Amino acid sequence: MTQATETKQKGIQLTEQALQHILALRNQQGKDLFLRVGVRQGGCSGMSYLMDFEEPSQVRDNDEIFDYDGFKIVCDPKSLLYLYGLVLDYSNAMIGGGFQFTNPNASQSCGCGKSFSV
């Protein structure tokens, strides 16, 4: 098994709005947590996005780690195949607000933007 790698070139991009919102959510948890981003089978387009906070001790040896000035995003290698180049944005608009995924690997996305197909 290889050791977790910290990548300088970010395969998962965050806009400033997304980073600020994620940091605010993490601060509410009262812990220094990482953000895990991934995919799973399901959703109306075949695959759905996953995002959740995770303890640093739960990072696996083969996870990719992306550092944003001390805040870390982790992604497993299988998910990264589908997410490489993803841009995660956040909008506080009343209609259509929340996290938005712009995935260059998606051939099709559902109307809500939370699932995709490749």
Explain what you see:
- 18% of the residues lie in helices and 41% in strands.
- It has helices at 16-29, 77-83, and strands spanning 5-7, 12-14, 34-41, 47-54, 64-68, 71-75, 86-91, 98-102, 108-109, 115-117.
- The chain has a seven-stranded mixed beta sheet. It has a three-stranded mixed beta sheet with strand order 2-7-8.
- The protein has a single domain (5-106), classed as Hypothetical Protein Aq_1857, Chain: A (Sandwich).
- By secondary structure, the chain is an alpha/beta fold.
- β5 (64-68) and β6 form a beta hairpin.
Give a short summary of the structure.
The chain contains two helices and ten strands; from the N terminus they run E-E-H-E-E-E-E-H-E-E-E-E. The protein has 118 residues and is of the alpha/beta class.
| CATH architectural designation | Sandwich
The structure class reads alpha/beta
Task: Work out the strand percent.
Answer: 35-45%
The domain tally reads 1
Assign the CATH class: Mainly Beta
**Helix content estimate:** 10-25%
What's the main sheet like? 7 strands, mixed
Largest sheet strand order:
1-5-6-3-4-10-9
Number of distinct beta strands: 10
Mean model confidence by pLDDT: 84
Report the uncertain regions.
1-8
Radius of gyration: 14 Å
General shape: globular
At the third CATH level, what is the topology name? Answer: Hypothetical Protein Aq_1857, Chain: A
CATH superfamily: HesB-like domain
Gap between N and C termini, in Å?
29 Å
Compressed to H and E, one letter per element, the order equals EEHEEEEHEEEE
InterPro entries: ATAP, ATAP_core_dom, FeS_cluster_insertion_CS, HesB-like_dom_sf, IscA_plant_cyanobact
GO molecular function, one term: 2 iron, 2 sulfur cluster binding
Protein name: Iron-sulfur cluster assembly accessory protein
Domain Core: 12-114
